[in-house]
Design brief:
Layout (H helix, E strand, L loop, with lengths): L3 H11 L6 E5 L10 H11 L3 E6 L6 H10 L4 E6 L2 H9 L7 E4 L7 H10 L6 E5 L4 H4 L2 H9 L4 E6 L5 H17 L5 E4 H13 L5 E3 L5 E3 L13 H8 L8
Parallel strand pairs: 1-2, 1-8, 2-3, 3-4, 5-6, 6-7
Antiparallel strand pairs: 8-9
Length: 249
């Protein structure tokens, strides 16, 4: 929320909502890759200081992400692994910085060792798990949550699969809110997309989530069509995709 005042001032002056964070899917290579440094530079001027990066074994130039994080030390970079290979690679890396939070993917036999290693290295870290109608109850069970705690993970990010139905998403979100509200566990669970939009709602009144692909194309909102960061500045993309301000603080 470092840029909340900047975001609100921009929204008041221009009448368009600005997302507080940007999600970027880097799990596959692109012929013309997104210029992450340029994106963050433009984003900070608008008050956007948080970047959620989804990475995988096929992510191009993974090392360059750390160079960007080091250059923009005032921004926060959440590195969401989506496969076992990336879990192990980044857990063993000495390049994780104080403004990067590594979030390995759960569901593999190695995540207990990864939690212990990251804790030993005094890194910021969490665990991410993809949910759907079949496994949602397991991921919300006392047995699983206690396992996550026992392995030292302070954060649990739950991410709906692309095919997850609306009813399951609502049920998971309700349970996550209940878990946080009652404080039964020394664990901070998040339903990623709904919680990101909830923070947007607090800062901007309207939900205004923006997600980009590895080539800078707009993935969300889906109504954006073929818009791409290569042909537009970030400010122009926001004007073309984000909702107009309907409430004034």
């Amino acid at each position: 929320t470092l840029g909340a005042k900047v975001i609100r001032a921009y929204e008041k002056e221009h009448g368009v909502n600005v997302p507080w964070a940007i999600l970027i899917d880097l799990t596959a290579p692109a012929p013309r890759a997104l210029d992450l440094a340029a994106l963050v530079e433009q984003g900070q001027k608008l008050g956007i200081y948080s970047y959620f990066l989804f990475i995988a074994e096929r992510t191009a130039a993974l090392e360059s992400l750390f160079a960007v994080a080091q250059r923009f030390s005032g921004s926060a970079f959440f590195l969401f692994s989506t496969d076992v290979s990336t879990n192990e690679r980044l857990a063993a890396s000495d390049e994780l910085l104080s403004n990067t939070l590594f979030v390995p993917r759960g569901g593999s036999s190695t995540y207990p060792e990864i939690g212990a290693l990251l804790m030993q290295k005094k890194r910021m870290f969490g665990l991410n798990c993809e949910y759907n109608a079949i496994n949602a109850d397991v991921l919300l069970s006392d047995a699983f949550l206690q396992t996550v705690i026992n392995q030292g993970y302070p954060f649990l990010f739950l991410i709906p699969s692309l095919t997850c139905d609306a009813g399951t998403r609502k049920r998971v979100n309700d349970e996550v809110l209940s878990l946080r509200g009652h404080g039964r566990y020394p664990l901070f669970p998040m339903d990623l997309y709904d919680d990101l939009q909830q923070v947007d709602h607090i800062i901007s009144d309207e939900h205004c989530m923006l997600a980009l692909g590895p080539d800078g194309s707009v993935l969300y909102p889906a109504s954006a069509g073929n818009l791409n960061l290569r042909e537009h500045t970030l400010e122009e993309l926001i004007w073309l995709t984000m909702p107009r301000v309907h409430h004034h603080r």
